[in-house]
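tl;dr need the bound structure. longer version: we got a ligand (NDP) that a collaborator sent over and nobodys looked at where it sits. i said id run it. heres the input, straight from their email, havent touched it
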Amino acid sequence: MKEDDTTNEHVQVLIIGSGPAGYTAAIYAARAGLKPVLYTGAEPGGQLTITTDVENYPGYPEGVTGPQMMVEFQKQAERFDTDVRYGVVTDVDFSGWPHEVTIDGKKKMKADAVIISTGASAKWLGLADEIRLNGQGVSACAVCDGFFFKGQDVAVVGAGDTAAEEASYLSKLANKVYMIVRRDEMRASKIMQQRVFNAQNIEILWNTETEGLIGENQVEGVAIVNNKTGEKRVLNATGFFVAIGHKPNTEIFESVLDLDESGYIITTLGTSKTQIEGVFATGDAQDRIYRQAVTAAGSGCMGALDAERFLAQKEVELAEVTQ
Ligand code: NDP
C-alpha cells in the first residue's frame, strides 16, 4: 500500500471501496492497463473482514477466513499495479467531466471513470454483546454462517423479508430456529411469512426483544423479554442472527445519483452504469437482493469492463473532435 502524498492528480479509473467488488474491478482495470487507483474506505476489506470462515466462495475448497480472503484480493490487485490507498472518499462532483472526488475532506482529484464499490453494512441492534461475540455465534448472514450451526438451536431477530428468508434457510440446517419479532405482526411479504409458519422447527416469539447474549467467548444463550408482559427468559441458542436490514454505504451519492427508496444505487439493468456517464456502481451498494461475495466480485468485473468500454469510446470521440 502506498502513501497518498499526491496532489492535483488526474487518473483514468478511480475505485471507491475495497471489498470483493472493488478489488475485482481493480484487477480487471489494472490488467487492461488503466492504472486504477483504489481508495479503501474506512473499513479496508469491507464486510468480509468481520466474518469468520468463508466456505461458499469458489476456488477455496478448504474454505478461507474472510480477512485472509481480502488480503489475497488486495495482493492480486496490487500484483497488477493497482495503486491501493488508505483514505475515504468524502465528496464527489459528477457535474462535469472528468469527474472530481474529494479524499478525506481535503485532497481533490480528477478521474475519467469512477467505479463505486462502497458496499453495504448490516444494521445491528446496538447491544454491546453483539460486538463482543461477533463471529463467535453472532452473525448477520445466514447463508454465510448458517452451516456452522448444523443441528443446533439458533435465534433470528427481525420480521422483514430478510429475517423470514434467513429463518427459513436456517430451519433446514438447525435443530430449532427462534424468530424474535418485536411486534405482534411481521413486515415480511405474505408468501415469506407463510414459509416461516409452515416450517415445523421455527418458533415465532411475538412482542419480544433481545436484552443480551449469554456466553464468554461464544454465544451460549439469548436473553429475551416480552415487551407486553415483561416476562424474561433465556433461549438456549448458540447462534444469533441479526436480520433487521442493511444500509448501503451511499450517503455521499444521495443528491448526485439515482438511489432507490432504501438508498441502493440504481443501475441500468444488466450493466453497472449509473445515470451519469463514466460513473459505475458495483457490489452491495447497488444490490439489495443477492449481497454475496461472489456476486459482488462478478459485479466488480462488470464495472471495470463497462469503464474500459466507456474510456475507449471517449477516446474515439475526443480524437474526432481534435481532427
Ligand atoms: P426491512 O426494513 O423490510 O425489515 C426490517 C425488520 O427488522 C422489520 O421487521 C423491523 O421491525 C425489524 N427491526 C428493525 N429494527 C429492529 C430492532 N431494533 N429490533 C428488532 N427488530 C427490528 O428489512 P429487510 O432486510 O427484511 O428487507 C429490506 C428490503 O429488501 C425489503 O424491501 C424486502 O422486501 C427486500 N427483500 C426481499 C427479499 C426477497 O424478495 N426475496 C429478500 C430480502 C429482502 P418492524 O417491522 O417492527 O419495524
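gonna send this back to them w/ a short note. The chain is about 25% helix and 25% strand.
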